[in-house]
Amino acid sequence: MALRSPSVPWHAVELTHGPVTLRAIRGSDGREWTRVRSRNADWLRQWDATRPPEDAGRPVTFRTMVRDLRRQAREGRCLPFAVLVDGAFAGQLTVSNIVGGSAQFANVGYWIDRAHAGRGYMPLAVAMASDYCWFELGLHRIEVAIRPENAASLRVVEKLGFTEVGYAPRYLHINGAWRDHRIFALTVEDVPGGLVRRVVRGRV
């Protein structure tokens, strides 16, 4: 079974609630993306996925990353969002590994400018992206994989009520080594009315 056809093409998707907006990442975001990433380099390095030495190749530039993400989006395999707070670039959220058929699931990964961390912006962004996947694309399950040491990211899924469903040893190559991850998930049945509704009602 194919995924439900969205009402607008992926590059025109724009989700807004309060101060947070998700929209398709653009090549024109390069300057702000680089500025935010540079300011947060030490903080993000310990959580960023990296290529293992045998597959290192050329360094991935912003332009290369966006080109690859947009290609995957055209193929229906991902949704690459820029996260804006009060209209300013603040981070990135990517819905990846979108699968239809009998699975109907996707993974969500994210990062945010440390200056905005802990203010509820990323839980809201994850909630908006999850609701879009459930109610617009017809997906059934959203998964998030997080390193056990990443306390800030763990707080996001805990606040949203994601259930821990497993532990994956050496799951992703991050910061020079294969790292274990905790796996969290929610299905559409777990959140009647959606995650944004849960946030708005103050349950986060």
Describe this structure in words.
The protein has one domain: Gcn5-related N-acetyltransferase (GNAT) (Aminopeptidase), CATH 3.40.630. The mean pLDDT is 92. The chain has an 8-stranded mixed beta sheet, with helices on both faces. The chain is α+β, with helices and mostly antiparallel strands. The N and C termini lie far apart (34 Å). It has helices spanning 30-39, 41-45, 62-74, 121-135, 151-160, 195-200, and strands spanning 14-17, 20-24, 79-85, 88-99, 105-112, 141-146, 163-174, 177-187. Helix content is 29%, strand content 32%. β7 and β8 (177-187) form a beta hairpin.
List keywords for this structure.
204 residues, alpha+beta, Aminopeptidase, 8-stranded mixed beta sheet, 8 strands, globular
Brief synopsis:
29% of the residues lie in helices and 32% in strands. It is α+β, with helices and mostly antiparallel strands and 204 residues long.
Distance between the termini: 34 Å
Q: Strand order of the main beta sheet, please?
A: 1-2-3-4-5-6-8-7
Outline: globular
What is the CATH architecture term? 3-Layer(aba) Sandwich
CATH class: Alpha Beta
Quaternary state, please? single chain
Q: CATH superfamily name?
A: Gcn5-related N-acetyltransferase (GNAT)
The major sheet is characterized as: 8 strands, mixed
Helix tally?
6
Low-confidence stretches: none
CATH topology: Aminopeptidase
Strand content: 25-35%
Secondary-structure topology with pairs:
Blueprint: E1 14-17, E2 20-24, H1 30-39, H2 41-45, H3 62-74, E3 79-85, E4 88-99, E5 105-112, H4 121-135, E6 141-146, H5 151-160, E7 163-174, E8 177-187, H6 195-200
Parallel strand pairs: 5-6
Antiparallel strand pairs: 1-2, 2-3, 3-4, 4-5, 6-8, 7-8
Helix pairs in contact: 4-5
